[in-house]
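Hi! If you just cloned this repository, the fastest way to understand the data is to look at a raw example. We've pasted two of them here, unedited. The first protein comes first, obviously.
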Amino acid sequence: MPSLIETLHQGYLNDDLYSQAQEILVQQAGPKPEPETLQEALQIASSKGRFDVVELIASCYTDIDDPLESVLGWTKLFQLVIYGTTEELEVALQAAKENQDILEQTDTCHRTPFLCSILVGDRDKAQRLLQAGSNPLACGQEGEPPVFYAICHDNVDMLNFLISKWNGDNQDGGGTSIVEQTDRLDNTPLMHAVRKRAVQCVNALLREHKVNVSGDNNPLPSLVDDNLNSNCSTTPVISNTTTREILFALVQAGARMEEMDSEDRAKLRGYANTWGKWDELLPTVSADDFADGCCVQFGDANPERVEDPFWKVMVQCGASAYSAFVQFESSAAESCRPIWSFDRFGKSCTLLPDGRFVEIAGEHEDYYDPDFAIYNDVVVHDGKGNCEFYSYPEEVFPCTDFHTATLVPSLEEQLSQEEEVAAVAGGSMIYIIGCVGYPQDRRPGFTPVFGLHVDTWKMERIETSGDMPGWIARHKAVYDPLSSSISITGGWIIVNPEEGRGVENKDEFTLNLQTRAWTRKSATP
C-alpha cells in the first residue's frame, strides 16, 4: 500500500481520497504516525484544498490542542470559514469590525479566509467576507487570482459567481478581465482548468465566457525556410491537455492539435505504451518488411490503402528516419534514403467527432538532411493504438506541409447539433489549405486547396477564385458554420519560390465554401 504522503500527492482530485487516507491511518493505528509525517500530510492536504482530509489527519494529533492553527496557520476565522456555519461566521465577522486586519491574514499557503471560502465552495460565506471588507483581488502564494481556487475543484457555480461579481463591480470595463488574469507564471484561468482537468470549468470558460483558446500564444516564426521549425515562446493552452473530453472542447473552440507536444499527442492517439521506444520496437521489424516500406513513395490510387508493418511501428514509436537507418544499417537502407518517417514537422492533426485522429502529410528533417522529405499521405488513428495509411498519386495530392486542415461536418451532422447553418451539401470534409512544399511546386499568388472526404478518404482538388491569400503557410483557419466559410489569418506568404522567403500575412482571407470564392479583409493600417 502506498504511504499517506504518496497517496495525498497522487490522488487529491480523487473522490476516494478521504477513504484511502482513512484506511492508511487505521492501519497505522498501532504506533501512531510520526509527528513529521502528520505535519507534512496536513500541509499537503491543505495545499491541495482537501479540507476534509485535513480534518481527518488533524484528528490523529493527541499532543497538540489546535494543530490547524499551529501547523497550518488557521486562526478561528479560517476554521469557521472552512468548517463552521454561515451564522457562526457572521457572528465572528460582526465581532471583527474593529479589527479588519484579520480578514487579510494568510495561512501557510498564503491564502486569505476569502480564498479559502472559494475552495470550500460556499458562495454565502464568500459574499459575507466581501461585504465585511475582504480584498476581492487577494492572490495565493504563486500569485493565483481568486478564480483559480474555484477551478481547483471544478466548481462552476463558484466560478460564475466570481465572474458575475467582478463584472458587476467593474461595469466601466476598466482593468483586465477576470478570465484573463494570470498567476506569476502567466498561466491563465483556462490553462489552469486544463491542467487541473476541470472539465466543467473548461466548458464554462469556453462556451459561456468566450475565452480565446489561442490569444497571442502563437507568434510568427522567422520567415525563412531555415527556421521553419523554430518553437514558439509561449506554451499554447492545448499543450496541457491530458483528457479526451477537454481536448474535444478546446478543438471545437478553435485550438490546434499541432500545437501539442508530440509525445502528449501520441498518448491521446493511443500510443502511450509505445511512444519513444524505438530501440524495442524497430528490432521487431523484419529486414524484408523494412526493405518493402522504407522508401518514401506515392500511391497509385485515390486513395491507396497501405498495409505496411514498418510504417506501423514507426508511427507507434515515433522514430526518426535516422534511427531506422541505424537499426537496419545496410546497403538497402542507404539506397532507399530518404527513409519513411512519421516524426514530422508541419503535419496537421484533425480530431473527428467519433474520436479518430487524422494526420496529414508534413515534412521530416531539414532540406540538407539525407532523409529530408515532404509527404502527401494521410494517417487515420482510432485513438486506441491502431492506424490506417492512405497514399495518393503526386498529381492528385502534392507534397504538403505547414498547411491547415479544417473539418467541415456534413449538413446532417451540423443540423443534429441544432445550429443554424448554411452548410455545403455532401459528407464531412477536411479542407486542406496552404503549403510550403518544394521550391519547384510553389506558385506565388495561388493558394492550394484540397478536400479530403472523411467517408472515403478520397482527395479532391478544390478550384477556387477571387482574392486569394497566395502561397500561404503557418496560418490559422477557422470554420464558421453560419456563413459556411473558412477564414484564414496570420502565417506568411511566399513571394519568391526559389529563396523560400515570405512576408507576414496581416490580412484576413475568407473562403466561401458554397461559391468557392475568396475575399480579403484588409487589416487596419
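Ok, and the second one:
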Amino acid sequence: MDSVSKEVRLVQEVYDLRELEKKIAASDFDADNDGTAEVVDVDVMQAYVDGLLAYVDGDKLKPYKVVANTVNGPAGPIINALEKKLPFDIVKVNNVFDRSFPYGVPDSADDGMRAATAAAVREQEADMGVLWDLDLGRCCLFDETGRCIPGECGERGMLVWLLVLELLARSQGKKLSELLAAEAFSWQDIAERLKAARC
C-alpha cells in the first residue's frame, strides 16, 4: 500500500518512516500539531469512478457480458459503482469484500483464481472475463473461450479493463479471440492510452 502526503508525494519521500513509527507507537500525535490539522471523512468512490470513465468513450461501449472476479477485494465495490454507468451485463465472482478471502489467494497470477475465472467465462458464455489482484492494480483478462490473454496488464488494472472493452467495441463485432488472432489488438494501443491517464 502506498500512502501519499498532502503534496501528493509518497509519504516515505516526505517523512522518515522510522520517526513516524516511533511517534505512532508513543501516541505522540500533538508534538508537531500547530492546531491546523483535522480529520476529514471523504467518499472518493464517485470521483474515482468518474475518473475511470473519463478515459473511455462511453458511446462506443457495447452491452458485453463480462465475468468480473474481484477476489473479495476492493475491486468489488468499484465494479458495483461502475455497473450503474456501463452497458455491460456483469457476472460477479467473489464480489463481496471479505478480508478473510474465503475463496483463495487474492492474486491475478494465482492458478486457482485463473481457473475459476476461466470456468465462469465458459459457463456464463461471457464475451470476456477479468480477474483483479487484491489492490486492483493488476488484472488478468480472458477471452470468450476462457483463455488467459497473453501480455502483462501491469498497473492500473481497472483502467486497462475498460480500455480493452473500448477497443473491442471499435472492432466491428469481432470477438476478443478474433481480435487477438487478427493482431488488431495491441498492448501498445493500451500503453499509449495509459500514458495520458491520471487516475
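That's it. A detail worth noticing about the second one: The CA atoms of residues 127 and 144 lie 5 Å apart.
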